[in-house]
Amino acid sequence: MHYDPIKRTLGNVFNRSPFLRKVFYNLLDLLLLRAWHIHKEIKAWLRTAPGNVSVLDAGAGYGQYSYYLSNINSNWKILAIDVKQEQVEDCNNFFRQVGRLNVKFEMADLTKFRQENTYDLALSVDVMEHILEDVLVFQNIYASLKKGGMLLISTPSDQGGSDVQGDGETSFIEEHVRDGYNIKEIEDKLRSAGFSKVEARYSYGTPGKISWRLSMKYPILMLGASKLFFIILPFYYVLTYPVAFVLNFMDMVFKHKTGTGLIVKAWK
């Protein structure tokens, strides 16, 4: 499935005003299980964060994580980069409208982007599965972090990530260049890029997998089939989201022996 046409449709709906854009961000935070895990790890990182923080949002997409970080502290300097010019321009326009002048979006290729010893925290949320030259990106982010800085990654695992369950299946999301990482593979690649400490854990365990199908996969399939499903979607979520909410909470608080997602932290 190609996400871009659906993304553009959503953008046209929610970019009509800053208020609708904020509503959209809040919906993403509620619906996307990876956002629950990322927020949890950021809150844990805050306990030892330095005073003046510089953040790199590496592959910012809609900009919801940059917005979340700018809510934590308006003095943080946040650079969000993405390869899509229209996305960058759209996000810069919104952040100016809402007065978040400490956040800047730039178009850049992560395989080429490097700013030596600049950032305390780097985010890579569902980005690495789209980039073939992953070790090069890890090396660039490592060089861009300050000593003691942390890289936080969310990405599919090889345990059914991208909804691939067997050798004969292809990714649910065709834009992925890999179906998911083996947990040891990504740890080894990060260490080879220079990171001194790496921790990885599974997300999207059994509760998360069910929630993802209810809150993301089935609605996306419906929207891909017909835009008329935009009318049905609110009623669908009224019925299904209470279940998905409980499942998301269970996935976030419990440890999983396996899962279709990975949450990875690496320190310089």
Report on this model:
The protein contains nine helices and seven strands. It has helices spanning 4-14, 18-31, 33-46, 64-72, 85-97, 134-144, 183-192, 206-225, 229-253; strands at 54-58, 77-82, 103-107, 119-125, 145-156, 197-203, 261-267. Helix 8 (206-225) runs antiparallel to helix 9. The protein is globular. It starts with a helix and ends with a strand. The model is unreliable at 164-172 (pLDDT under 50).
- Helical fraction equals 40-55%
CATH class: Alpha Beta
- The string of secondary-structure elements, in order, is HHHEHEHEEHEHEHHE
CATH homology-level superfamily: Vaccinia Virus protein VP39
| Largest sheet data | 7 strands, mixed
Counted beta strands? 7
Regions with little confidence, pLDDT below 50 for 5+ residues: 164-172
- Helix tally? 9
Instruction: Domain count, please report it.
Output: 1
CATH topology: Rossmann fold
Strand adjacency order, main sheet: 3-2-1-4-5-7-6
If classified by CATH, what would the architecture be? 3-Layer(aba) Sandwich
Distance between the termini: 36 Å
Work out the radius of gyration: 18 Å
**Structural class computed from helices and strand pairing:** alpha/beta
